[in-house]
Design goal:
Aminopeptidase; 5-stranded mixed β-sheet
Length: about 170
């Protein structure tokens, strides 16, 4: 197994994984490979995108897992050793390859990338119902940030707020 920023040679296999990821979060929903390819190349991997996609691949080149990260600067801590952190948007390992060290290899790669880029920490969300994921993260030494909550604004509230004050 090898972990690296996704090379062009892995795009097709990554599309397969992203289709599986979509199904994981959207039970009963399917998405076309063409739509996923368009999003991958036009947004996630586009020039100027803040996203970095690290993939774990098998010896034959199949993408087995993914970590999506972005480096973020603090707006409240300006000291050089604390002003930059790594935000992980997603960690996903194919369901058929879990419990084989792939998630740990991806997290180790992300930690190394963060340290090499001057980050003081890695932050990420996890669903409260994901007991297996929470246990995995805690086994790595991660700590729950109890004072943080996540909020989301989506339709129709998003449009209502966008048009509230002009």
């Amino acid at each position: 197994m090898h972990v690296e920023l996704v090379p062009e040679s892995r795009h097709e296999s990554l599309i397969d994984l992203l289709c599986e990821l979509h199904a994981f979060y959207n039970e009963g929903s399917a998405v076309s490979r063409e739509l996923v390819r368009e999003h991958l190349l036009g947004n996630l991997l586009a020039t100027g995108s803040s996203q970095r996609l690290a993939v774990a691949s098998s010896e034959d080149g199949a993408v087995l897992g993914l970590a999506a990260i972005a480096l973020v600067y603090s707006l409240v801590d300006f000291t050089p050793d604390k002003r930059k952190h790594c935000q992980m948007k997603e960690l996903y390992v194919r369901s058929s390859h879990r419990s084989r060290g792939i998630g740990k290899a991806l997290m180790s790669w992300v930690a190394r990338y963060a340290v090499e880029n001057g980050c003081c920490r890695i932050d990420w969300p996890v669903k409260a119902s994901n007991a297996r994921g929470i246990s995995f993260y805690e086994s790595l030494g991660a700590e729950l940030v109890a004072e943080r909550l996540a909020y989301r604004l989506s339709e129709p509230s998003l449009s209502r707020l966008a048009n509230a004050v002009k």
